[in-house]
């Protein structure tokens, strides 16, 4: 069964790490030396939102998300990428799809699309991102 699970998630990547703390060890008097500084960009440098999936067979599609993510946009991402990812990974039509319990994942429009496309959903406990192997992949 595990070989037929297609794991998925979204993440926000900030290339310049605006929302993260960084710590450095440095000798006294070297705070402003180049190796001990972090470059900055105007207006924070922006961010990119991604949706991706993978299975035991390999990686599926990785999609850059334009604008604000909502249930309709999520459904569109699934429509354009989910079945194709499963086919590319040779999972067949009887794969199991994993997604967390984010409101856009459990929205009526999303559930209808999944039901209409005969996608089996893996039941997922709430507040359990540590169980999803894709969560560790985003940190690489």
UniProtKB/TrEMBL annotation:
<dbReference type="Pfam" id="PF13358">
    <property type="entry name" value="DDE_3"/>
</dbReference>
<dbReference type="InterPro" id="IPR036397">
    <property type="entry name" value="RNaseH_sf"/>
</dbReference>
<protein>
    <recommendedName>
        <fullName>Tc1-like transposase DDE domain-containing protein</fullName>
    </recommendedName>
</protein>
<dbReference type="InterPro" id="IPR052338">
    <property type="entry name" value="Transposase_5"/>
</dbReference>
<feature type="domain" description="Tc1-like transposase DDE">
    <location>
        <begin position="5"/>
        <end position="139"/>
    </location>
</feature>
<dbReference type="GO" id="GO:0003676">
    <property type="term" value="F:nucleic acid binding"/>
</dbReference>
<dbReference type="InterPro" id="IPR038717">
    <property type="entry name" value="Tc1-like_DDE_dom"/>
</dbReference>
């Amino acid at each position: 069964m595990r070989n037929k699970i297609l794991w998925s998630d979204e993440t926000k990547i900030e290339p310049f790490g605006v929302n993260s703390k960084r710590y450095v060890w440095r000798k006294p008097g070297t705070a402003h030396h180049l190796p001990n500084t972090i470059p900055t960009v105007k207006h924070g440098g922006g961010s990119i939102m991604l949706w991706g999936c993978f299975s035991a067979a390999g990686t599926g599609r990785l999609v850059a998300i334009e604008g604000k993510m909502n249930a309709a946009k999520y459904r569109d991402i699934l429509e354009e990428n989910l079945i194709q990812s499963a086919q590319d990974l040779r999972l067949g039509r009887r794969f199991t799809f994993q997604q967390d319990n984010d409101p856009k994942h459990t929205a009526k429009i999303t559930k209808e699309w999944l039901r209409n496309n005969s996608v089996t959903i893996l039941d997922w406990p709430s507040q359990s991102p540590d169980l999803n192997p894709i969560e560790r992949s985003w940190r690489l």
